[in-house]
Amino acid sequence: MSQKRTFAVDGDLSGSSNSGEPEFLAIGQLHRPHGIRGEIKMSVWTDYPERLEPGLKVFIGKTHQPVYIRTVRWHGGDLLISFEEFAVREEVGLLRNQVVMIPLENLPPLPDGEIYIHELIGMKVIDADNDILLGEITEIIETGANDVFVVRGSQGSEVLLPDIDEVILAIDLGRKEVRVHLLPGLIG
User: Fold this and answer.
1) How many structural domains are present in the chain?
2) pLDDT in tens, 123-154
3) 5 within domain boundaries
4) Residue 8 neighbours by CB under 8 Å, 6+ apart
5) Which domain holds residue 151?
6) How far apart are the C-alpha atoms of 92 and 60, rounded to whole Å?
7) Is the domain of 139 the same as that of 66?
8) In this structure, are 18 and 102 located in the same domain?
9) What is the tens place of the pLDDT at every residue in 99-127?
10) Same domain, 30 and 87
11) Which backbone phi and psi does 92 adopt, to 5 degrees?
């Protein structure tokens, strides 16, 4: 069931290690400074870059350093972004290769029929034809054609399921369950 999913989750660069702390979602990665006014190139991992606007509080790196966006503008396929806390090239250069995140609680609601990628992680996968638990989704691989759900069984085996209408029949967020139809050859 092809549904729009947004925002990337990047292993231990997102989330929270301590219970009670907010969980974070990666929305981009900083690269190198640009110019002399504190701008830095950022690759964008969100489907909604227009929501990255001046005044927005984001968090950087594994320590989740809070910063406020000062400016945002496109430059080629990347964003040039600057932060209130870093005024010059040398300062912002210290953020090189850091991941930019927002708290999960600040995610905007999606239109009906759309879900975030991170909501799929940990869902049970059920073979709808035989009503058998195949395992749970541990990863989403984004390919050019369609996403692929990595499903790990209780014995550690993995099944790769393409996110196409013939395979992914239903996603139930409330039950944290995905019902699938296994095409011939998907399980060895």
Assistant:
1) 2
2) 999 999 888 999 999 998 888 788 899 999 88
3) no
4) 25, 26, 27, 45, 46, 117
5) 120-180
6) 12
7) no
8) yes
9) 999 988 877 777 887 888 888 989 999 99
10) yes
11) -70, -25
